[in-house]
Each structure stands twice: as C-alpha cells, then as structure tokens.
C-alpha cells in the first residue's frame, strides 16, 4: 500500500497546485489570442480535452449560453458539442438547466476544480489498490534482471526521484554524501530511516548545523560526488552536481563491482578523510546493524573505550564451506589496516574464537553480510 503522504505527491500539494493554476486563469482576456491559447493550454494541463477547454473558456465569457452558441463561439462541430458539454457536466465544471433550449453555465472554478481533483485522486487510488498486488508480484519476479546494468538519470527530477526511492530501501545501513542545498529534499527521509534504526553515515560538502538524527555526520569541504548506497545493494551517484545551474548527470546501478568500488571510495576517501561533526555512538545508540565492516569496527572501538559491554551478532557464511551461519559473541579484538586491506573482528563465542571478515573475506572464518553491534 502506498502511504497517503507520498501518493501522487500528496493531495494537499496537488490541491494547492490546482488552486494556483485556477488563480492564474483570472485576468485573461478573450480578445488576446495569445492569452486565449495559453488559457486553453493550462486547462488541458488540468485534464480537459481541447474541445472541453474551449467550451469552458467560452462559457466563462458568455456566463450562460445554449449549446448552439457555445459551438459557434468555440468552433466546435455541432454534433460534438453535446458530448463535450456532457463531459464537462460529469466533471462537475458545468451546470445544465432543464427545459428547451437547455442552458449551460460554469460552476465556481476554484470549488469545481478542487472537487474534480479529489475525485480523480480517489479514482486513481482505487484503481491502483486493485492492481497493486499484481504489479508488485511482477516487479519482484523480475527485479534482479538487468541489475548489473548502469542506468543514466539525465535530469535533476529523475535524480531526486531515484535518490529518494533508494534511500527508502535502506533496512540496515545507508552511506550518503550531499550538498547543503539537497538537505530540504532528503532530510525528512533520513529522519524516518533513523527512527527505524537504520545506521546512517552522512558526509556533507558544505558546513552546516550538526545533523543529530544520523549516527555519523562528517564534513569534507570539496566539490565531491553525490553518492547514496543503501545496504550495499544499489546506488545512485552524481559526478557534476557541485554547482547550481549545472545540468547534472546521475547514474543508478546494482552492479556489484561498481558498488564495491564506490563503497570503498566512500569509506576510505570521503569518510576516512572527513572531519567528524557529530557522532552518536556511545551517547544514545545501543543497537546498530552494519553491512560495512569499517563502521562496525569504529562503533565497537568507541564503545569499548568508554567501558561499555558489547555483544556482536553476525549473519553471513563460512568462508571455506560457504554454508550460511549466525554467530554471536563478545568482541575481543578488532583489526583494520587500509594498506594491507585488513578489516576484521575477533569474537569469543562460548569456548570458540571466531574471526569475522567483510566483503569477499577468505582469510577469516566468516564472511559477514550483516554485523549487529549490541550494547
């Protein structure tokens, strides 16, 4: 089910948009052909056909008219005008009198279009709910097809649409870099994720107030790449979004090789060379799940340094047999060396000592998919 506040951009927003467009209709004169054409265009944008828009505008001018008068003034073929006026009546924009000849007049545009909008939204909602299950099932059946492809997002609108979509997909961890001008668009989504317990690492390229709803807010003053990677499963990246007025080009992919490349770039370059602005570990965070070993190690070390007791629970697979496993224990040591390519956690589980590695681990006992740090 689609949430009401996201459906069609929210009802309140669209009502406001329609009201703005209806307000813009006022002040047009029928004598100016340029204004008349623009008025027709605006009405068509609100869902009217060309003939409906012309008939409606003529009725605005004539106040009350017969079908013959409307057909003549609007240049609508007489056989078509009855269907056009009946459609306007069905939309709630026109009232038809009884008797002969029938007379037509328009309703108050603000009231009529708002009512039409609400009915349209409700109809679309019912239609969607009727087929949403089928659409979702078909999508899930084929969602992995083409996952290795890289898709271009060639407008700012497409970039934001996909960026917000994949932010919502994060279940455990989100890595994201952004400019300050992007925050009004993404902040509410990030706050929602944080409330769900998703661990967020935010690197910003401009100085701003600490974003205390994320686990990590870091500053890297540069003209950097916008990156969003939820759970190491997919990503959006934009390479030329540093200046206002530019026509940015973004990319979306689930390609595992690109994901590995950009994840390591984010962790070791953007995050590793950034200045901490706000870190929540040790203050209010007691349980966090990670798909990236480096951040799990940082949280463990931070909590150990302030004397907190920690348990680590890992879901992954044994590196030798590839058999899936869940192991849980006390972290007794962590190792991280960027130059040697080592990142591991050593835990004691009962009488066993188990080494946990990250992506493509082969020296350790277990390759981790999800690392849960509990304190």
Task: Describe the fold and architecture.
There is one protein chain. The protein has 375 residues and is an alpha+beta fold. It folds into three domains: 7-113, Arc Repressor Mutant, subunit A (Orthogonal Bundle), CATH 1.10.10; 150-279, 2-Layer Sandwich (Endonuclease, Chain A), CATH 3.30.870.10; 287-374, SH3 type barrels (Roll). Helices cover 41% and strands 25% of the residues. The strands form three sheets. The protein has an eight-stranded mixed sheet with strand order 3-9-8-7-4-5-6-10, with helices on both faces. The longest helix is centred in the middle third of the chain and has 34 residues, at 109-142. The chain starts with 10 loop residues before the first helix and ends with a strand.
Q: Count the DSSP helices.
A: 10
Query: Which band does the percent of strand residues land in?
Result: 15-25%
What is the domain tally?
A: 3
- Provide the CATH top-level class of the largest domain: Alpha Beta
Spans where pLDDT lies below 50 across 5 or more residues: 1-18, 25-29
Which structural class do you get from the secondary structure elements?
Answer: alpha+beta
Set down the secondary structure blueprint.
Elements (H helix, E strand, L loop, with lengths): L10 H15 L7 H13 L4 H13 L4 H8 L3 H13 L3 E3 L7 E3 L2 H34 L7 E4 L2 H14 L3 E6 L4 H13 L3 E6 L11 E4 L6 E5 L4 E4 L11 E4 L2 H16 L3 E5 L7 E4 L2 H13 L5 E8 L5 E14 L4 E8 L2 E6 L8 E9 L1
Parallel strand pairs: 4-5, 5-6, 15-16
Antiparallel strand pairs: 1-2, 3-9, 4-7, 6-10, 7-8, 8-9, 11-16, 12-13, 12-16, 13-14, 14-15
Helix pairs in contact: 1-6, 2-3, 3-4, 3-5, 4-5, 7-8
